[in-house]
Each structure stands twice: as structure tokens, then as C-alpha cells.
Amino acid sequence: MDMREQLRQAFPSYGPHWDAAIDAGVDVSLLLHNLELTPTERIEQLQRMTELYEALRPKDAAGDATNP
Questions:
Q1: Residue 62's pLDDT is what?
Q2: What's the pLDDT score for residue 8?
Q3: Which residues contact 64 (CB under 8 A, 6 or more apart)?
Q4: What DSSP string runs through the chain?
Q5: CA 16 to CA 43: how far, in whole Å?
Q6: Which one of 11, 37, 51, 61 counts the least CB within 10 Å of its CB?
Q7: Nearest alpha-carbon partner for 28 in 40, 10, 43
Q8: What pLDDT shows up at residue 6?
Q9: Per-residue CA distances from 52 to 3, 56, 65, 68 (Å)
């Protein structure tokens, strides 16, 4: 079964924009999860992702992050 069909079955329609997001391949379960977080939890999640990004970002010989 297509993931879009699974999302349509798992979540009610919240209107045409919601349906269009599913049709475009957006995992609306992630949207709902993030909306359940408090603002503080969202900032903490962003901080963790930023730290992971910086840890995985390639470094040049001097140890500085390369320009994207």
C-alpha cells in the first residue's frame, strides 16, 4: 500500500490543503507530532538537530567548517 493511502486512512481530512500535502508526499504524522510539542520542546529539538548537523558537517584542514 502506498504511504499516501496509509496516511489518508490513519488521519482524518483537515481540508483541501491537508489532502494536498498528503498527495505531495508530506508525512503529516510528523506535522502532528511537532504540533504536539511545546515551544520549549521544539527549540530543544532544533538545538539537537543543529548540533548533529554541525558534528556531521565536513571540516577543512584548519578544523573550520567548509562553506556550503
A1: 63
A2: 85
A3: none
A4: --HHHHHHHHS----HHHHHHHHTT--HHHHHHHHHS-HHHHHHHHHHHHHHHHHHS-B-TTSPBPP-
A5: 29
A6: 61
A7: 10
A8: 87
A9: 28, 6, 13, 16
C-alpha cell at 60: 577543512
Global pTM reads 0.58
Which residue bears the cell 567548517? 65
**C-alpha to C-alpha distance for 45 and 63, rounded to whole angstroms:** 26
Which grid coordinates belong to 24? 505531495
Q: What is the pLDDT of residue 66?
A: 62
Question: Which residues have C-beta within 8 Å of that of residue 49, sequence separation ≥ 6?
Answer: none
Q: What is the pLDDT of residues 15-54, one digit of tens each?
A: 999 999 999 989 899 989 999 999 999 999 999 999 999 9
